[in-house]
Amino acid sequence: MERSILHLDMDAFYASVEQLDNPHLKGKPVIVGGSGDRSVVSTCSYEARQYGVHSAMPVFMAKKKCPQGIFLPARHKRYEEVSREIFGIFNQFTPLVEPLSIDEAFLDVTNHRLPPAVIAAELKERVLKDTGLTVSVGISYNKFLSKIASSWNKPDGLFTITPDMMPRILFPLKVDRVYGIGNKAAKKLNSLGIYHIRDLFALDRRRMEELFGKQGGEIYHRIRGIDNRPVISSRDVKSVGRETTLDRDTRDKSFIRKLLFEFCKEISMTLDQKNFYGKTVTVKLKTSSFRTMTRSKTLEGYIKDIHEIYEVADRIIRDIELKEDLRLIGVSVSNLTQHPVEQVSMFEDREYKKKKEIDRLVLDINRKLGDDILKFGIEL
Ligand SMILES: [Mg+2]
Q1: CATH for 172
Q2: Residue 324 catalytic?
Q3: What is the pLDDT of residues 337-360, one digit of tens each?
Q4: Residue from 98, 104, 218, 308 carrying the catalytic annotation
Q5: Cα 59 to Cα 72: distance, rounded to the nearest angstrom
Q6: For the whole model, what pTM was predicted?
């Protein structure tokens, strides 16, 4: 059966919240980002975009392009508050809500009693009425296409991509609009003279696999309208983790710890994106003789910061005596929540804060030492 997937994306979210809270900013080029010149733009209003400012642009450059811009620091607490309100609305339409970031989600409304276009219109109205903000909605039969649809006529957009519009609707888009093609891959394609999806469409499957490995096959199907990824609601996400089979078995702890740190970084980023906090950290190891060991630690409070996750993973790995080389290493964070109530009181505790600060310093030093050891000694 054909699915009905909505992609919802708030318009210029941070900047719109600023304009909502400070009405005198309405209609003005508002640029939200870090305060230093070396920081980057998080979001800017559509008025600022007319001057060529965009997110991820260094602030000093945005100042050059738009000197009259109103530069504001990000108020994450406030954005999270609004985000909760928005997701509350989404959840009233279906429990199948997959958050992609603080202001973006997929909804699977395949089994809803109303047609998707009606749901989309109602959602837009509800979000505007309850929060004063606009959301763009894309409707299609898979995730990739609904995301393309939501960006079609932003802001305040509503657009549907149906099977009969495929593949031509994609042809004029740049290759980096395809899920799975990042900056690096796009550059590689550009260097081969492939700029638009039209050009990509001309490549056969084998060529795509040569270029991108297994992922190439998926991209080949995706631009032909085939994308079977399910919508996974936050309630169904039990853990966030990373693991890898090593190129060469090892029991070198400084190498293992370095790898764990990289995993923790990715996990922390994913948690942040999905607005999750976790309580349990698990390290998984598989030895050369295929013996699997898992060790977990459950904390009092919820965490998502890279240093806090790594601290726990590191403690676990330090306590394990390795009698054999390892062939697989993994780490995951589970016991997830999106509303860590306990955390507030925990972080308000001054003693706790001080202790954390010291822990962090020690951790930084350890890490630097680890890096040096790695630079001088080990090559794997
Ligand atoms: Mg957005």
Answers
A1: 1.10.150.20
A2: no
A3: 877 764 444 444 455 555 556 656
A4: 104
A5: 11
A6: 0.73
